[in-house]
Prior knowledge:
This protein has helices at about 5-20, 55-60, 70-80, 90-105, 120-135, 150-155, 190-205, 235-245, 295-300, 320-335, 335-360, 395-410, 430-450, and strands at about 35-40, 45, 50-55, 110-115, 135-140, 170-175, 210-220, 245-250, 275-280, 290-295, 360-370, 370-380, 385, 410, 415, 420. The chain is about 40% helix and about 15% strand. The two termini are about 45 Å apart. The chain has 2 domains: about 5-65 and about 335-450, Aspartate Aminotransferase, domain 1 (Alpha-Beta Complex), CATH 3.90.1150; about 70-335, Type I PLP-dependent aspartate aminotransferase-like (Major domain) (Aspartate Aminotransferase, domain 2, 3-Layer(aba) Sandwich), CATH 3.40.640.10. Strand 1 and strand 2 (about 45) form a beta hairpin. Strands 4-10-9-8-7-5-6 form a 7-stranded mixed sheet, sandwiched between helices. Strands 11, 12, 13, 15 and 16 form a 5-stranded antiparallel sheet that branches. It is globular and about 60 Å long. By secondary structure, the protein is α/β, with parallel strands linked by helices.
Amino acid sequence: MTPQPNPQLGAAVAATDRAHVFHSWSAQELITPLAVAGADGSYFWDYEGNRYLDFTSGLVYTNIGYQHPKVVAAIQEQAASLATFAPAFAIEARSEAARLIAERTPGDLDKIFFTNGGAEAVENATRMARLHTGRPKVLSAYRSYHGATAAAINLTGDPRRWPSDTASAGVVHFWAPFLYRSPFYSENETQECERALTHLEDTIVFEGPGTIAAIILETIPGTAGIMPPPPGYLAGVRELCDRHGIVLVLDEVMAGFGRTGAWFAVDHYEGVVPDLLTFAKGVNSGYVPLGGVAISSAIAETFARRPYPGGLTYSGHPLACAAAVATLNVMADEGVVENAARVGADIIGPGLRDLAERHPSVGEVRGIGMFWALELVRDRETREPLVPYNATGEANAPMASFAAAAKANGLWPFVNMNRTHVVPPCTLTDAEAKAGLAALDRALDVADTHTI
């Protein structure tokens, strides 16, 4: 689609937004949201006619790109036949979405509890774990994000937790592996894996194994930095959980449904099956809000004759489920998962590593599939971040200038702290990938000016 400029309408949209919309995670008077006129595939555009290659996939959810005609048609058809219905009934779209999801989850995760999004999935997964075990505590990693609802924000490790942390939510944080900034002074992945597992085991011992209901991990952490765990780590966590009767919850809200070049990120780690798996985002490419929990047979049995004390008015909403059915079928029919794996391995990964060789601001490249991060630094030797942890205002100026340069070159970047994440739609073409890398190359020239 060709953007048709309409600045007058764009100004009206922006003005109405400023008058009435309260935006997430923002000081309202310090933001200027872009007025978006439309989107298609891997691109979106504003009312001035500026088009951007979206390296954010919205909020890492448009896995099949914007406006896929088969998903749009499925939503329209569902709206025409049964636009909504209460969650206590068996509805074709709901049943089929659950079946298709269960077919793709690992192991015996065959029961699906639908939510409206990822945070509610995490809320219900931790509730299930606590009720299943009769224990109060949940362990989660410092470098993590699990959502903004009451339990999910306390489980979150990043600074967005701080203003809402009650310090009484039964959450204990620990350090998960991250070799580039190892808290364990490790020199290689083997050491990092062993030391991180020892640290987690010590945490379990000193917290009391009999008090811990669950350990929750993002299979591959997303917003916190896209850090694939070293070989053996997830298997080691699985063994610790089995030894102590702890439920393992893997959060695949961001990493699931093709993002890593597999249906789920856990598919990359042979023999690891969680007890609960949370999902959202890519399950229907974000076209209608949907999330859920995939539940093992053992935990499902806990609620076979005991009511599960939780539910949502819009659980398994027909429009959202119809979008999920269409999305999952599109992904299978059009080889979207395979495309993410191939483009990631053949173009994105090598391209980012080439950028790292030429730009002193790039400290490390991490990722897989369509799930990558560049760690930007002031000094490669000391690994000092390009901006301080949780920087704002003038302290964040180097990252702000990098982001502005990317946008000026037609690339919309995902920027968090001292990192830029490369998380485009899983349908990204070779040509689009190369165009995005070229724009990123030019933006990194600006980041380089802030290095030592």
